């Protein structure tokens, strides 16, 4: 019963964090991209997923803890490749992470 109540509360608390949007993706330096997103009040942190194809097969995921962090620079990218990026928020309740839906994807070409 307590577990069910905790899950229900987590879902209700996560509803306001749905709809995280990527506000920008730029090729910030050689082999790097910077991802920016809008803050969500109820989030504990965010996950960034990036891949070289829009279906996100073989994607890599980076977790950003802390609700106030709104950008992340990702390094070791291949020059000339196009990367697709999406973000989602998460809320931790009783040690369990509950995730929002992924944002729509944005792309960036690594030209530097």
CATH architecture: Sandwich
Could you tell me the strand content as a percent range? over 45%
Can you tell me the number of structural domains? Answer: 1
Total strands: 8
The description of the largest β-sheet is:
5 strands, antiparallel
Shape: elongated
Mean pLDDT rating: 88
N→C terminal distance: 55 Å
Name the poorly predicted regions. Answer: none
What integer value in Å does the Rg equal? 15 Å
User: Within the CATH hierarchy, at the fold level, what is the topology?
Assistant: Immunoglobulin-like
CATH level 4 superfamily: Immunoglobulins
| Percent range of helical residues | 10-25%
Put simply, the count of helices is 1
SSE topology string: HEEEEEEEE
Level-1 CATH class name: Mainly Beta
Account of the protein in words:
Helix content is 12%, strand content 46%. It is mainly beta and 112 residues long. It has one domain (2-109): Immunoglobulins (Immunoglobulin-like, Sandwich). Strand 1 (22-29) and strand 2 form a beta hairpin. The longest helix has 13 residues, at 2-14.
């Amino acid at each position: 019963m307590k577990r069910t109540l905790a899950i229900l509360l987590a879902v209700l608390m996560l509803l306001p964090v749905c709809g995280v949007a990527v506000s920008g993706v730029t090729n910030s330096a050689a082999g790097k991209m910077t991802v920016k997103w809008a803050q969500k009040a109820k989030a504990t942190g965010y996950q960034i997923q990036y891949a070289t194809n829009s279906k996100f097969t073989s994607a890599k995921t980076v977790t950003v803890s802390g609700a106030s962090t709104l950008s992340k620079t990702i390094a070791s990218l291949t020059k000339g490749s196009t990367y697709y990026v999406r973000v989602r928020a998460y809320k931790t309740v009783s040690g369990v992470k509950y995730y929002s839906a992924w944002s729509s994807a944005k792309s960036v070409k690594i030209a530097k």
